[in-house]
Amino acid sequence: MATKGGARVIVKLRSTESPHIYTTMKSRRNTPERIELRKYDPVVRRHVLYRETR
Hints:
Number of strands: 4
Number of domains: 1
Radius of gyration: 13 Å
Oligomer: single chain
């Protein structure tokens, strides 16, 4: 059985150019630092940088 409070957590990715937010999961064990991804932003209709917020 999996335990609660494991290595995987739900994080919010906020766009740097609009208020849009994605949610995803990451492993605290493999990536303890905050993640940054380029994803599609439907508000500005192009790919922009998304940063992890807590």
